[in-house]
């Protein structure tokens, strides 16, 4: 049986991906800071759950190492956890910047550092990093978010070239406007901004519609 770890698996894209992986017979461990939601998703779909803050490199490494030890292999590492941060440049503080970098970029780096050596030693595996359309084109009024998602795209493409020699695949996903709770919880734990308060309305206005997460997970 193939084995996967999905960060940010308690909601949105992560939950949809985990559910689809399980449907395909993969043993899935979802990891999330939201313990109640994560436990519920795990119970609903027959998954394992671990509470995890992806900004904690040691915790990420410990989880991935444990899953490999218990399951005997690691086929997929989905570095999906992320936050939405937006506002005018004048509104955004260094707290906005630092938190976005910690979760959206360092969270991916921590997942890569934990999973890649294992996959190299195995000679197989697939790392999937969630970026965004904002990682391909600039998203006005979302400077920290845009910067981190561009970084995730660059990291993924560079790693892909290196990893191929070891039988490890690397993908980066750049979804557009997906209907996820991220739109209702922009700037989490950070000073409020006008854009953050109206993120869902702004997304609908910009895109015309929001795509369901299942369209991406399938």
Features:
single chain, 218 residues, alpha/beta, Rossmann fold, 8 helices, 14% strand, globular
Task: Explain how this protein is built.
- The chain is of the alpha/beta class.
- The chain has a single domain (3-217), classed as Rossmann fold (3-Layer(aba) Sandwich).
- The protein has helices spanning 12-23, 35-45, 57-71, 94-122, 143-163, 194-197, 199-207, 213-217, and strands spanning 3-7, 27-32, 48-51, 76-79, 125-130, 168-173.
- It has a six-stranded parallel beta sheet with strand order 3-2-1-4-5-6, with helices on both faces.
- The two termini are 20 Å apart.
- The relative contact order is 0.15.
CATH architecture: 3-Layer(aba) Sandwich
The CATH class assignment is: Alpha Beta
N→C terminal distance: 20 Å
Strand order of the largest sheet: 3-2-1-4-5-6
How much of the sequence lies in strands comes to: 5-15%
- Encode the helix/strand succession as letters: EHEHEHEHEHEHHH
Largest sheet: 6 strands, parallel
Helix content: 40-55%
Output the CATH topology.
Rossmann fold
Low-confidence stretches: 197-201, 203-208
Radius of gyration, CA atoms, in whole angstroms: 17 Å
Integer count of domains: 1
Outline of this structure?
This protein has about 220 residues and is an alpha/beta fold.
Describe the secondary-structure layout.
Elements: E1 3-7, H1 12-23, E2 27-32, H2 35-45, E3 48-51, H3 57-71, E4 76-79, H4 94-122, E5 125-130, H5 143-163, E6 168-173, H6 194-197, H7 199-207, H8 213-217
Parallel strand pairs: 1-2, 1-4, 2-3, 4-5, 5-6
């Amino acid at each position: 049986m193939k084995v996967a770890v999905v960060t940010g698996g308690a909601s949105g894209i992560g939950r949809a991906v985990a559910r689809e992986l399980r449907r395909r017979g993969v043993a899935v461990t979802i990891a999330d800071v939201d313990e109640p939601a994560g436990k519920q998703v795990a119970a609903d779909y027959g998954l394992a759950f671990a509470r995890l803050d992806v900004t904690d490199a040691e915790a990420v490494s410990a989880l991935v190492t444990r899953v490999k030890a218990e399951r005997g292999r690691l086929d997929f590492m989905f570095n999906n956890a992320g936050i939405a941060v937006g506002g005018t440049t004048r509104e955004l503080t260094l707290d906005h910047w630092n938190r976005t970098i910690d979760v959206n970029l360092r969270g991916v780096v921590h997942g890569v550092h934990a999973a890649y050596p294992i996959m190299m030693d195995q000679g197989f595996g697939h790392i999937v990093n969630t970026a965004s359309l904002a990682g391909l084109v600039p998203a006005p009024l979302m400077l920290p978010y845009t910067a981190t998602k561009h970084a995730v795209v660059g990291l993924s493409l560079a790693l892909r070239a290196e990893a191929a020699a070891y039988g490890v695949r690397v993908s980066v996903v750049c979804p557009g406007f997906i209907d996820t709770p991220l739109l209702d919880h922009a700037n989490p734990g950070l000073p409020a901004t006008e854009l953050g308060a109206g993120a869902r309305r702004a997304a609908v206005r910009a895109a015309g519609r929001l795509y369901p997460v299942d369209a991406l997970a399938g």
